[in-house]
Task: structure prediction
Amino acid sequence: MTRARILGTGLAVPDRVVTNDELAGIMDTSDEWIRTRTGIRERRWVREGETGAELAHTATTRALDMAGFRASDLDAIVYATSTPDHFAPGNGVFLQRRLGAATIPAIDIRTQCAGFVYALSVADGWIRSGLFRHVLVIGAEVQSTALDVSSRGRNTAVIFADGAGAAVLGPGPDDGSGLLAFDLHSDGHHAEKLWVDSPGSMYHPRITAEHLKQGRHFLAMDGKEVFRHAVARMPESVRAVLVKIGCTLDDLNLLVPHQANLRISEMMQRELGLDGERVYNNIDRYGNTTAATIPIALDECVRGGRVRPGDLIVVTAFGSGFLWGSAAIRW
Ligand code: COA
Result:
């Protein structure tokens, strides 16, 4: 059976580093509060005019280089983002244009923090079915422009950040490697617990002066509820995807969790009984970049030698929606 395989990865983050102390200078927070509650030391935010599609383009160039491909070798783009540069069209086409790729299909996936896992599953289906051969999968976000950087927004402003990760996928050899299984879920009962209310097509006009005054265009989060569900759903999903491939936690070489909050990752690690060596975290340097956390982490793992051929890796994510899920990958 043809399996999809990750042939190259790449990451790109803005060069503007925003430290906790810098945030403490503009809102009522402190480096100590942020570090102990979230594990974040610094994050990257775009400069004025820098876009998500630009970051995705840089990440893609690096992933293509690793795969030994050119943009003309791509057959499709799956672009996961909850923060497109514009309301419409999605960022897939802006990336297609930047790459100078042929008129290949480009779709956006809007499943927020779970975006990259969902996008991988779409690419996997396309490759397995033979519909497309080489698929570019992106997880990229510019969250900083949706953050309320006054004290009113401090519970989200200190967490979310910008960045992009890319993976080039293609059919792999018939040796058991590649994307093995997915476990995907949603529960819309919690849609308003982590969301951006406005602009929205249910409003006419889509954003009003009142919305702006009330801050309804900012990312809003019920942190405690998100935390409570995340620490239950991600471990549950990791176990479920392992069951699907007939493996156990003992077989797992590396868990790459969505970088929501270091405390969430650490609770999941304890719940699954994994040692620290088998869980990858980099939230201290990048914050929570939503759909980009997993491909950024994967790229660091690949380039840093944390994954070797034959390793079993699980990536898992939980976030806005609520949407969550995992993918099992034999490297
Ligand atoms: N700096 C200082 N104080 C802050 C703060 C900040 N950046 N953000 C919130 N606080 C304050 C609150 O106002 C509150 O003050 P009060 O007790 O005087 O009302 C106090 O800290 C506790 O707030 P609370 O929201 O109960 O804190 P918490 O212990 O739940 O931690 C989070 C807040 C956001 C760190 C935590 O809820 C969390 O990590 N949730 C998950 C978030 C997440 O992972 N989101 C991404 C999912 S994809």
